[in-house]
């Protein structure tokens, strides 16, 4: 691909994605070095043969990695394995998937490690943080539409896992709803026709009622790009809460948007 398109892009700084065959991810679906992964070049000889065409390389080898020691040892491995290549590059991107904003993450050690790499090979090091940046920044705010009972109380909200927080279904993880304390237990469920459209089971300190607000955490990033028109449910409006508490509506959707998105 690089050779095929090189003439068209040669005036630009070109980087190559490399698959170092080491990675960290708790989800096979998101593991960049999973078996048979198509993400990145593996064959070192072929990288050496085109080294003059590129100025940098990208190693995206983590997903939600909150384990600094693991990151550090994988980086050492990459530095050793790709020494000859790194010595010839101007820049290296370590991709995303490093959870350096997590509470108690040893950020100082992390920066030190990155500086070491930068100095050792005289390269500019880039990171591409996605989730590390948006975690704890964005909530899906919705209202309870109905409460039904099937052995357990079930509050149905004006939102849907499948339409609005698809990652929960894909990775089979419950939504984060806090503080999740109290003696009243409810399933919080979506309003689509999908039987498994369930955000999770949570505890509340008072009985829930129709019209109450439910706030679902971590609805930034992948949630926003994956929302869809399943069941014709309206997409959530996007609003920004400013530091002074005021809320600015950035975007809202309507029936016309839905129609325009159908074939
Ligand atoms: C090349 C690349 N960079 C950055 C990211 C962002 O990752 P994350 O949101 O896990 O930090 C991804 C996600 O898959 C990616 O593929």
Descriptive labels:
elongated, 2 domains, alpha/beta, binds pyridoxal-5'-phosphate, Lyase, Ornithine Decarboxylase, Chain A, domain 1, TIM Barrel, about 260 residues
Please give a structural write-up:
The chain is an alpha/beta fold. It has two domains: 132 residues, Alanine racemase (TIM Barrel, Alpha-Beta Barrel), CATH 3.20.20; 95 residues, Lyase, Ornithine Decarboxylase, Chain A, domain 1 (Beta Barrel). The chain contains ten helices and eleven strands. It has a five-stranded mixed β-sheet, with no helix packed on it. A four-stranded parallel β-sheet has the order 1-2-3-4, with helices on one face. A two-stranded antiparallel sheet has the order 10-11. Strand 10 and strand 11 form a beta hairpin. The radius of gyration is 23 Å and the shape is elongated. It starts with a helix and ends with a helix. The mean pLDDT is 96. Bound molecules: pyridoxal-5'-phosphate. Pyridoxal-5'-phosphate (PLP) binds next to helix 6.
